[in-house]
Design goal:
Helix content: 25-40%
Order of helices and strands: EHEEEEEHEHEEHEHEEEHEHEEHHEE
Radius of gyration: 20 Å
Number of domains: 2
Shape: globular
Number of helices: 9
CATH architecture of the largest domain: 3-Layer(aba) Sandwich
CATH topology of the largest domain: Rossmann fold
CATH class of the largest domain: Alpha Beta
Number of strands: 18
Distance between the termini: 25 Å
Strand content: 25-35%
C-alpha cells in the first residue's frame, strides 16, 4: 500500500518499550522496517536499565509505549508507572545518542483520566506526565482518543490525536452486515465526556442520541443517576474511551435495560482494560451481548466468553503506521481519517465461546472526514 510506504527507510528508528510489543511489531511490519534492537532489564532493586543496541544518530526515532499493566519475565507485575519511566529513559537514551527527532507514540496516554482537579490538594496528573515528556525533549506526541482534548494543551509540541471510534463502528457495522437503522438503534453517551463521540456516531449513522448522567462515589465506583432520551426497545451503541473496572458499563446496562427497557447496550471502547476479569464482568452482564474494543493495550485472549456473547477486537496498527508515513513523507495527517478500510487494510477478530476468527472485510466501508 503506497500510503504505508516510507520514502527513506534508513531515516526511521522504531523503538518499542515492553508494554505492548505485539502492536508495535504490527506497526513495524506495515512500515516494512524492523524494531530497533533494545535491551530493557531490571536490576535486583527493580530499577530499570535501558540500552539502545543500534545506531540512532541523525535518525527520526519513534518510541512506542502505552498505558497498561503487564508482567516481567519473572511474572512480576509491571505498573503503568514503570512503563512511563521506561518510556522516559528510552527517550533520554535516544536524545543522548544524537537522534534527529524523537517522537513518542502512546496509543493510550498515561494518566489521561486525571486531567483536572476534582477536589482540593489533588494533582493534575496528566499535566505532570506531559511535563515529563517535554523535559525529556520529545518533539512530537502521537496518541489515540484522548480522554480529554484539553490534554493537547498541556504540551508545547505537536500532538496528533488519532481517532479509533469510527473504525470500531465500521467493524460492528460489518459484523451485523450493515443492518443498523434508526428504528432499532440509538447512540448512548455513557457520561458527559462521551457526548462528542456519541454525537459524531449519531450524525454519521443517522441515529438519535441519549445521554447518561453519572457520579463517582469512589475509585472505579460509578453510580448512574439517569439517562436522558428515549431508549425504549432500542439497541444502544455506547462509545467510550477507557474501561477500567467495567463497572460503569455494567451499571449503565442495568439502568438502560432493566429500568428503561432498552434491548441491550453495545459498548465500543478504544482503550479496554488489560485485565480479563474486567472484560468478563462486562460480557457476563445479561444486558450486554456484544463488546467492541480496540487493541491499544494488550488483550488477554484467555478471557472466558459466555455462550451467545461476542467480543470484537479491532486492530488499529494501520492507523498508526499511516500516521507515521504521513509525518515522515511530509504529508497532511488529515489524510489518515479519509482513507477507507480497504485502503488501510483494517481487520478485526471475533472471539466467541466456540473460538477465535480473524475477519478482513472485502467491501469498502466509507467514513466521514475527521472532525
Amino acid at each position: 500500500m503506497d500510503m504505508m510506504k516510507l520514502h527513506d527507510l534508513n531515516q526511521v528508528a522504531f523503538i518499542a518499550g515492553r508494554s505492548h510489543i505485539e502492536l508495535a511489531q504490527k506497526i513495524a511490519n506495515l512500515l516494512q522496517i524492523n524494531l530497533h534492537k533494545c535491551t530493557i532489564a531490571e536490576f535486583g532493586n527493580a530499577e530499570i536499565m535501558i540500552k539502545i543496541e543500534e545506531n540512532v544518530r541523525e535518525k527520526n526515532v519513534y518510541i512506542f509505549q502505552t498505558d497498561t499493566i503487564g508482567k516481567n519475565e519473572n511474572g512480576e507485575r509491571i505498573s503503568p508507572n514503570d512503563y512511563f519511566i521506561e518510556m522516559l529513559l528510552l527517550l533520554d537514551a535516544a536524545n543522548r545518542a544524537d537522534a534527529n527527532i524523537a517522537t513518542v507514540i502512546t496509543p493510550s496516554y498515561f494518566y489521561a483520566r486525571q486531567e483536572r482537579k476534582t477536589a482540593g490538594r489533588e494533582p493534575i496528573s496528566a499535566k505532570v506526565t506531559a511535563n515529563c515528556i517535554a523535559v525529556h525533549h520529545a518533539k512530537r506526541l502521537i496518541t489515540m482518543d484522548l480522554h480529554a482534548q484539553a490534554i493537547q494543551g498541556f504540551l508545547e509540541i505537536p500532538v496528533d490525536n488519532l481517532y479509533a471510534i469510527k473504525w470500531l463502528v465500521a467493524a460492528y457495522r460489518h459484523h451485523v452486515k450493515n443492518n443498523i437503522s434508526s428504528d432499532d438503534y440509538i447512540t448512548l453517551a455513557p457520561d458527559a465526556g462521551g457526548v462528542p463521540r456519541a454525537r459524531w456516531m449519531s450524525e454519521y449513522l443517522g441515529l438519535k442520541m441519549a445521554t447518561a448522567y453519572k457520579v463517582r462515589v469512589g475509585l472505579d465506583k460509578p453510580e448512574v443517576l439517569d439517562i436522558a432520551g428515549d431508549i425504549k426497545y432500542k439497541k444502544c451503541l455506547t462509545p467510550d474511551d477507557i474501561i477500567s473496572s467495567g463497572g460503569t458499563l455494567v451499571e449503565l446496562a442495568e439502568k438502560a435495560v432493566d429500568e428503561l427497557r432498552a434491548k441491550e447496550i453495545i459498548p465500543l471502547v478504544t482503550h479496554p482494560s488489560p485485565k480479563k476479569d474486567s472484560l468478563e464482568k462486562i460480557l457476563n452482564s445479561d444486558n450486554i451481548k456484544t463488546l467492541v474494543i480496540a487493541n491499544t493495550v494488550p488483550i488477554d485472549y484467555d478471557v472466558k466468553i459466555p455462550y451467545d456473547k461476542t467480543l470484537i477486537i479491532v486492530d488499529v496498527s494501520p492507523i498508526f503506521a499511516a500516521a507515521i508515513c504521513m509525518i515522515e513523507n511530509r504529508e497532511s495527517l488529515s489524510k489518515v481519517f479519509q482513507y477507507r478500510p480497504s485502503q488501510l487494510g483494517l481487520s478485526y477478530e471475533i472471539l466467541t465461546s466456540s473460538g477465535r476468527e480473524l475477519i478482513v472485510p472485502e467491501e469498502d466501508m466509507v467514513f466521514a472526514n475527521s472532525h
